Amino acid sequence: MSGDSECARTSPSAGSASDTALLPARRKYECSLSPELVTKAREELQEKPEWRLRDVQALRDMVCKEHPYLGTCLDDAFLLRFLRARKFDYDRALQLLVNYHTCRRSWPEVFDNLRPSAVKAVLESGFVTVLPRLDPQGRHVVCIRPDRWTPSNYPITENIRAIYLTLEKLIQSEETQVNGIVILADYKGVSLSKASHFGPFVAKKVIGILQDGFPIRIKAVNIINEPRIFKGIFAIIKPFLKEKIANRFFLHGCDLNSLHQNIPPVILPEEYGGTAGKLDISAWNELLLASEEDFLHDFSQLLLPSDSSPHDTLVSGDADEKQCDESLRGMKPQLYYCY
Predict the structure, then answer these.
(1) Is the pLDDT at 81 greater than 90, yes or no?
(2) Average pLDDT, stretch 92-121?
(3) What is the Cα–Cα distance from 17 to 6, expressed in whole angstroms?
(4) Alpha-carbon distance 93 to 288, whole Å?
(5) What is the pLDDT of residues 272-285, one digit of tens each?
(6) Which residue among 105, 233, 320, 336 is least crowded, i.e. fewest CB within 10 A of its CB?
(7) How far, in Å, CA of 64 to CA of 73, rounded?
(8) Can you list the alpha helix ranges (DSSP code H) found in 11-51?
């Protein structure tokens, strides 16, 4: 099926009844936001409930007109994620949607066969989890612990896959779309050998996804227990960060009091000076693994049509990879110096 046909047949105003019956029914949107979050979305994201579906339809029309071969899901709830992430600016939301698909199609090592059961080993290692309680601003805290990764067991791309699936699960919640998330990264025990796996090419890919290719609002990144080697890691990351995001990085070292100024102890596990008991990864793992069917449904709609036009064909990233490899060679002396 061509992208043009897909857009025509999924549009409420186009396509015969027989044509539409061949496609899965588009999920009807029902707002789940509390009155307080409706007000917050209006004030912070320029979201007007009375215009919400009109705005979604406007974005859908833009997709069909300007990117008919994108092969994207056109459900109201799915498109609404991108509008909220870009404060209902149609043009910026459309670009984010295009970037979302570009990222997914240009990095097959991460996005092929992307489903929770495929990263079960990463989840069981405790490399990434989500704390059970929200922070005072209603945000989930994503906890990343690189020391739980053994490079000889699987490549770094498996960790990225697990993080991406975690974010995909979180962004299904309208509350998260409005409030955003907080990241807590514990770099305890990260050695030079592990840091060497996170070169400029991987850094650029990951940051490109988080900044410009995924509809989520990252409100803060808290780094704790960072060793000296982190100076080298951050030197790799920083050139790819926008100033707004760079200003949301907080390096606490081993100072838990500093961390508690950003994340209150009441929601933190004992490992980080909190009062919420031992860090338990089982609840999040069970939730994510139980979402297998949801991911299969959502991702099945994100396929590149076989007859995509040259206008929508993605450009290979070989040149970027070569450039980043050269940057890595220049960065290694700095990593050794920091270590």
Answers:
(1) yes
(2) 95
(3) 14
(4) 27
(5) 999 999 999 999 99
(6) 336
(7) 11
(8) 17-21, 35-45
| Per-residue pLDDT, 303 | 55
pLDDT at residue 153, rounded to an integer: 93
The CATH 1.10.8.20 portion of the chain extends over 35-106
60 with 11: CB under 8 angstroms? Answer: yes
DSSP state of 128: E
Taking alpha carbons only, the member of 4, 5, 24 closest to residue 301 is 24
CA 126-158-302 angle, 5° bins: 115
- Nearest to 187, CA basis, from 129, 141, 233, 243: 233
pLDDT beyond 60 at 61: yes
Question: Which CATH superfamily groups domain 118-291?
Answer: CRAL-TRIO lipid binding domain (3.40.525.10)
Q: Locate CATH 3.40.525.10 in the chain.
A: 118-291
3-state secondary structure of 122: helix
Average pLDDT, the chain: 84
Q: What percent of the chain has pLDDT over 70?
A: 80
Task: Return d(Cα 189, Cα 293) in angstroms, integer.
Answer: 36
- The string of DSSP letters for 173-189 reads SHHHHHH-EEEEEE-TT
Q: Give the Cβ contact number of residue 318 at 10 Å.
A: 8
What angle, rounded to 10 degrees, do the helices at 90-106 and 200-212 form?
Answer: 150
Give the separation between CA 111 and CA 304, rounded to whole angstroms: 13
Say if residues 84 and 177 touch (Cβ distance below 8 Å): yes
Query: What CATH number is given for 35-106 in this structure?
Result: 1.10.8.20
Predicted confidence band at 302 (pLDDT cuts at 50, 70, 90)?
low
Would strands 249-253 and 181-186 be described as parallel, antiparallel, or unpaired? unpaired
Q: Is the pLDDT of residue 226 over 50?
A: yes
Tell me what pLDDT residue 195 has.
Answer: 74
